[in-house]
């Protein structure tokens, strides 16, 4: 893969759209002043990708931050997601209009099915295909889909998802899913990359010391060198800046392998094969 040396670098999705490798996640960031300030800080630092979702309840704040940023719309990459209770064909189209209204955006860069709700996600994705064909979204994809869900979806969809956003962190590397997505041109994206703040991992700290970096920066660099788009979240300007300061060093092949070896299939979030929300 390309040498990643700048926050401005992008990956080309399977439909030719460019998506930044690093973005700001706003899960659990409060609507209003908190989310607006976090985004303003991130944009000042050089971030251009913001990841929200209907369920986060902060799309309006994201919209205000985008509007007041002074940046041209095409410089920004905005992702949102349809929530589980709104899944289904017509209800997804309605949910999309609601997200678009809150974000005050004509087009969304990436729209995702948030979770693979049994019996509903195919109809939901069909609505995303309609939105894509009509030009309301620049790319469509899924979130929290594992191989069985993707197999099922790819058996009937017209448009291969551009992105699959999943839990991906040193204890959960999902190598089979990585290979599956790579083979089919689906860009993997990591949510909650920073172990929900549980960074007291001796190996990561040791590698960090070797590069003059924190354990968090080591994980984010590992994401990028693994070809995974990553969206760490923070509301603290210094942390937002630290998370972006990962383009001036490179992990060795040995370091990459040793981090991969931490994998034990351990989830910190919900299991996409067994969730009830």
Spatial order of the strands forming the largest sheet: 3-4-5-6-7-8-9-10
Domain count: the total is 1
Termini separation: 37 Å
> By CATH's scheme, which homologous superfamily applies?
NADP-dependent oxidoreductase domain
Structure notes:
The protein has 10 helices and 10 strands. The N and C termini lie far apart (37 Å). The chain has an 8-stranded parallel sheet with strand order 3-4-5-6-7-8-9-10. A two-stranded antiparallel sheet has the order 1-2. It has one domain: NADP-dependent oxidoreductase domain (TIM Barrel, Alpha-Beta Barrel), CATH 3.20.20. With 277 residues, the chain is of the alpha/beta class. The mean pLDDT is 97.
Explain the layout of strands and helices.
Layout: E1 10-12, E2 18-20, E3 24-25, H1 33-45, E4 49-51, H2 59-67, E5 77-82, H3 89-103, E6 108-113, H4 121-133, E7 137-143, H5 147-154, E8 163-167, H6 175-183, E9 187-191, H7 202-211, H8 215-225, E10 229-230, H9 237-244, H10 253-260
Parallel strand pairs: 3-4, 4-5, 5-6, 6-7, 7-8, 8-9, 9-10
Antiparallel strand pairs: 1-2
Helix pairs in contact: 1-2, 1-9, 2-3, 3-4, 7-8
Describe what is shown at a glance:
It comes from Paenibacillus glycanilyticus. By secondary structure, the chain is of the alpha/beta class. It has helices at 33-45, 59-67, 89-103, 121-133, 147-154, 175-183, 202-211, 215-225, 237-244, 253-260, and strands at 10-12, 18-20, 24-25, 49-51, 77-82, 108-113, 137-143, 163-167, 187-191, 229-230.
Q: What attributes does this structure have?
A:
single chain; 277 residues; alpha/beta; TIM Barrel; eight-stranded parallel β-sheet; two-stranded antiparallel sheet; 10 strands; 38% helix; NADP
